[in-house]
Structures are given as structure tokens and as C-alpha cells.
Design a protein that fits this description.
homodimer; 204 residues; alpha+beta; Glutaredoxin; Glutathione S-transferase Yfyf (Class Pi), Chain A, domain 2; 2 domains; four-stranded mixed β-sheet
Chain lengths: 204, 204
């Protein structure tokens, strides 16, 4: 199998970190997203949505969507668990992974795509009002998240999980979205410092 | 356990259909989303995101987010499987469930929330340009989906899955978003007719 990868873009980063946490190394092909290499005819045959990353199996089957790729590896190699083991853990990690994705990573991405001049290649029609609305939503969510992180070590509970990976990537994407973690959100800042110290989060 | 339910709104409908497919009946408390009952203090303590549905366990643990609730029941009662059994099935169903959600249900919801006067109670600041952009994205996705459904019975493969549930709910939500399935998309129309005939999709 081989991973069609997308460098430092948020979704490729999520799979890269997930694989490092699992200790899995596979062949990777790098694409330049800003040069729109994911819109080529060859890649569109692999993934009609034209998004990275994509995991291509040896028989040619393509698994697209970040979390689907993660789930495939979680099922193939359950240790260390990053998506929960009991029904309740699985549900709570899914809940937080989705909250982070829908209410934090997505608003941060919308803010970048609809406000930053550097995003025009991937979002040719920017809607600035939508970008600003999402900056505000991301700020609201960080306040909720900071409160949650006062009472536990990681986003979805005591253990590190895929929800922390998504949250880490969203935090690292704040700056191009003209956002930042507020000084008073010390629980979120402490959490980010701890997760940033994990070897899996180093880009290479 | 009991389900904090939201009537005919899209996410509550997804959990209702999932439970019927599983043959699971549980206590349900109905909330009126248009009357913003999900913004009460009591409900906010249960789910700070103020969204429905929420599954409340007997010990008070709250599981929010539609797919997290579905995953909990899938783990508790695997039969009939709606989220796959092998690693590859799990990955492909996750891939399609997410494609449908992010590229179809979400754009349809954005179109409704940012264009329909009836959505002002839940989306007080509407951004019409964003709504229209999402109408166009939903149309683009329906064309891709129609092509896919020419070669298989269900959204993620031969078997009915959670991806079909999300897709069904998105299709039923097209009208308030001022969208419709095009006449020429006969594979998508046939699929919708077959899924609509399943007893699980009847609202009660």
C-alpha cells in the first residue's frame, strides 16, 4: 500500500501523526496542494473529491478521507488504541473527534480559506463575512475547550486519542486563520505544550 | 438510557433511522429545535454544544454527536452491521459516510440555514453568498453520487449502511434548501426510491 500525502496541510498532517503514534511506516507520495496537483486527471480517478490524503491498497482500492484512513489502520493494528476500545470509549472519542473537527478545525479552515489571500488558489471565490463568522465560532469553541481541559489530561479523556491529533492540527492552523489561543486559556495552552512535545507531532 | 431527540431535524432523523434498522427501542424525550429548547440551561449542562440528539446513559454520561451515538449502538449490538465488519468495509463506509456528510448534508444544511427565512431562529446572521455557493456544491456532489450509484446498490457498497442513512436524510432536506435531484440523475432517484421504501425511514 502507499499513501498519497499532502505535506503540511491539515488533513495530511492528521494521518502522518496517527501513523507515527501507531509506529507504522509506509510508502508516501507527496503532492503540492497549492500547485493543485490533487486536481490532475490521474489523481481524480483515485479520488473524485480531489482531496488528500488517499491510501491506495495493493489491489488499487482507494481509501480517501482522513478519518477513514485512520480507522483502517486502527482496525488492522489496534495497538496503541487511538479510537477507543470499549463501546463507551469509542463513542466519547468519536464525539470529541467530531466536535473538534466540526466546531474547531472546520471553522479555522473556513476562516483561512475565506479571508487569507494565500488561499485564493484553493478557494477562488472568498466570502469574507463567512470567514469572519467562523473566526468568531473558533474563538467560542476554544473557550469551551479550555474549560473542558481543566478537568482532564486529553481532549476525549485521560488517554491521548485521535481527538487530540485533530485538535493539535487545528491549533497549529490558527495563525494563517488570523486566530490565536487567548492568554487566559491556560488549560488549552498547557495541553498544546504537552502534545507538541510528543515525537509524533514533529514534521518530517 | 434515554435519547434527547429533536423530531424531524436531520441529525435526530439519522439516529432514529439507525436505531430502527438495529431494532432497538429506547425512551425518547422530544425537543422543539425551532423553539430553541436545546439552548436551555438544563440541556446545555448535558451538551455544551447545544445540539441534538444526545444519548444520556443511566449514570448521567452524555454522548452527543449523531455518529458517536450510532457508533455506541454499533459496538453494543453489532447486528445488523451498519458501519462495516472487516477493516476495509469499516474504512469504505467511513469514507462514504464522511463524503456524504461533508460534501452533501453539510452544504444542503448551509444552503437552508443561510438562504431560508425560516432558518433565522437558528442562524440569525445569514450569509446569502455562502448559501448559494453551497447550493452549487450540493448539485456538483449529486452528479458525482449519481455516477457512483450506477455501479452499486448502496452508497458505500452492496450493503445498506450508515452512509445511506446520512444520504437519505440529505435528500429529504433538499427542498427547504431550494434544491432537487435532477431528472437525469436516475441512479440517485432509483436509490432514493429503494431506501424510502425501507420501514426504518418512516417517521413516527
Amino acid at each position: 500500500m502507499r499513501l498519497h500525502d499532502g505535506g503540511r496541510a491539515p488533513n495530511p498532517r492528521r494521518v502522518q501523526i496517527f501513523l507515527k503514534e501507531k509506529g507504522i511506516e509506509i510508502e508516501r507520495l507527496q503532492y503540492d496542494i497549492n500547485a493543485l496537483e490533487q486536481k490532475s486527471d490521474a489523481f481524480t480517478r483515485l479520488n473524485p473529491m480531489q482531496t488528500l490524503p488517499v491510501l491506495e491498497l495493493d489491489d488499487g482500492t482507494a481509501i480517501a478521507e482522513t478519518v477513514a484512513i485512520c480507522r483502517y489502520f486502527e482496525a488492522l493494528q489496534p495497538e496503541p488504541p487511538l479510537m477507543g476500545t470499549t463501546p463507551l470509549e469509542k463513542a466519547l472519542i468519536e464525539m470529541w473527534q467530531r466536535r473538534i473537527e466540526i466546531r474547531f478545525l472546520l471553522p479555522v479552515a473556513y476562516a483561512f480559506r475565506h479571508l487569507h489571500p494565500g488561499a485564493l488558489s484553493i478557494e477562488p471565490v472568498q466570502v469574507a463575512d463567512w470567514g469572519r463568522m467562523n473566526q468568531s465560532r473558533a474563538r467560542d469553541f476554544m473557550a469551551i475547550l479550555d474549560t473542558e481541559l481543566k478537568s482532564r489530561a486529553h481532549v476525549a479523556g485521560a488517554a491521548f486519542s485521535i481527538a487530540d491529533i485533530t485538535c493539535y492540527v487545528a491549533c497549529r492552523f490558527l495563525k494563517p486563520a488570523q486566530l490565536a489561543i487567548a492568554e487566559e486559556h491556560t488549560a488549552l495552552r498547557d495541553w498544546l505544550e504537552r502534545v507538541s512535545a510528543r515525537p509524533s507531532t514533529r514534521y518530517d
